[in-house]
Amino acid sequence: xxPRYIDAQHAVTDLVEGACKRDGMTEDAKLTAYRExxxxxxxxxxxxxxxxFKITRAVGEYKAAAGLPPADPEREARQVTRLRRLxxxxxLDEELAEKFLRFIIEEVIRHHERIQRGQP
Amino acid sequence: xxPRYIDAQHAVTDLVEGACKRDGMTEDAKLTAYRExxxxxxxxxxxxxxxxFKITRAVGEYKAAAGLPPADPEREARQVTRLRRLxxxxxLDEELAEKFLRFIIEEVIRHHERIQRGQP
Lengths: 120, 120
What we know:
Two copies of one chain form a homodimer. By secondary structure, chain A is mainly α. Helix content of chain A is 83%, strand content 0%. In chain A, α2 packs across α4 and α3 (73-89) runs antiparallel to α4. At the A-B interface, α1, α2, α3 and α4 of A face α1, α2, α3 and α4 of B.
């Protein structure tokens, strides 16, 4: 773990700890505060994923109509390289970012294959 | 696939198709336009994930200090129920939302276990 990651994580800890002290929170309340932030972020992630799958569904229909294969390894390689770089800048573990993208792409290809078989 | 999902996806397709016609784009340019939107969404997802993992790292340190176990099945069950509901509202496949959350939680637990073993 690089010093940059640890600094960023300490900044978040300090933020929640500062808020807890100010509001006279107990230790349990601190965990609750962390979880409220996680829940907010999860809601944002779900809504971004919903938008992403709307677009990939359109791509799937486009590919089916154009006779293109569901998977595109060159495009995937470019996406992996780009997201690993973005993850490094955002202080997110690059391996995790790649695993996340591969999880999403696998789901998308499954959807594209369904579309090419004419299934909804 | 419910009519709601299909309507939402057609709205996106129409949006990109409208922009393509207006700008005199070829079919290849349409695929490029879809991919630019996907790339923007992926950047947003990576940055939200970076924030989420900063907070779960702090939770991991809190749990290690308080002697709490890395996993919390009751909390996970509440998260799954909530995210499935949010996914349904956002017209995202609920199964996919649950698989996504479980992917993230598995990574988080792995991180928490590392922290409890005193590894960075």
